[in-house]
Amino acid sequence: MTTAAASIPELLQRIAEALERVAGASPPPPDFAAADAFVWQAPARRLAPVRHVNRVEMALLRGIDRARDTLLENTERFARALPANNALLWGARGMGKSSLVKAVHAAVNARGGLETPLKLVEIHREDIETLPELMGLLRADAHRFLVFCDDLSFDQDDTSYKSLKAVLEGGIEGRPENVIFYATSNRRHLLPRDMMENERSTAINPGEAVEEKVSLSDRFGLWLGFHKCSQDEYLEMVFAYAERLGLEEDRAVIRAEALEWATTRGSRSGRTAWQFIQDLAGRLEIRLA
Q1: Which helix (H) or strand (E) holds 268?
Q2: Is 238 exposed, middle or buried (0-12, 13-18, 19+ CB in 10 A)?
Q3: Would you give the distance in Å from CA 34 to the centre of its chain?
Q4: Mind listing the pLDDT tens digit for each residue in 49-69?
Q5: pTM exceeds cut of 0.85
Q6: Residue 257 class from Cβ within 10 Å (0-12 exposed, 13-18 middle, 19+ buried)?
Q7: Are 49 and 31 in contact (CB under 8 A)?
Q8: d(CA 242, CA 230)
Q9: 97 near 184, Cβ under 8 Å?
Q10: Is 117 within 8 Å of 143 (Cβ atoms)?
């Protein structure tokens, strides 16, 4: 009897060790001193440091002055522990939404004067359901975090948006004081129009059904719209890139080729301008840093 009782703790210990081996070791705590930017790797529940962020200089983002100034001011306030809003950057493709988020992060840190550097954390769209876990991980740290999701949208029967709603001030804990959330999307309400119309046609109370979906975008206090640029704005982007990169070519030639490039693609945007510049640099045999 005594021998059997004495073996129970040992048996429980072996069971616990076996379960730990099956579950895998817990990931080490993130080292936020390793970088100023991280990517949330949801399957491993870890933050991977990004030492070289793919970003565009703030000065090269043209045609979005109002959105640039508004987002920069909002981010600076947050970095200084002042009240600030979650932000939704929505609108036309290729107009610099995600580039602006990354440029603003760099600009705020470059100005200095902060107790700790502002950290940028990217979460992928397909991992939104794990956002509460990420927020819990960041909540306990002394740094301030800009959590960013690029190209955020939800399709029919996708319920992961509820995780986002709960985090953005809707849950019992709400958004951590040291975290702000920025998202980019082509859709103002993050949901396809046919999804909203289907809710109206099939619900007993159409207004309430749509309200459940639309209320997600209301969790963002700051809405910044990005619209298709004019021809002059497009050319301004092209010439700014060419000057910054030292592409020595006649402006009239650049203008004509840039317009032809945009026409063949059926769009004018910052992305189109950059793609043209890459083609031009290649033809001039100039390497881009």
Answers
A1: none
A2: buried
A3: 20
A4: 998 999 988 988 988 999 999
A5: no
A6: middle
A7: yes
A8: 19
A9: yes
A10: yes
Q: Which amino acid is at 155?
A: D
The residues with which 155 forms a beta bridge, in sequence order, are: none
CA 11 to chain centre: 48
- Residue 97: exposure state from Cβ atoms within 10 A (0-12, 13-18, ≥19): buried
Q: Which two tokens stand for residue 6?
A: 């004495």
Let me know: does 220 contact 168? Beta carbons within 8 Å. Answer: yes
Residue with structure tokens 């210990």?
A: 13
pLDDT tens for each residue of 142-176: 999 999 999 887 776 666 777 777 777 656 667 88
Backbone angles phi, psi at 268, to 5 degrees: -120, 125
Structure-token pair, residue 19 = 């379960």
DSSP string, 122-172: E--GGGGGGHHHHHHHHHTSSSEEEEEESS----TT--THHHHHIIIIISS
- How many angstroms separate the CA atoms of 224 and 102, rounded? 15
Let me know how many helices (H) and strands (E) the chain has, helices first.
10, 7
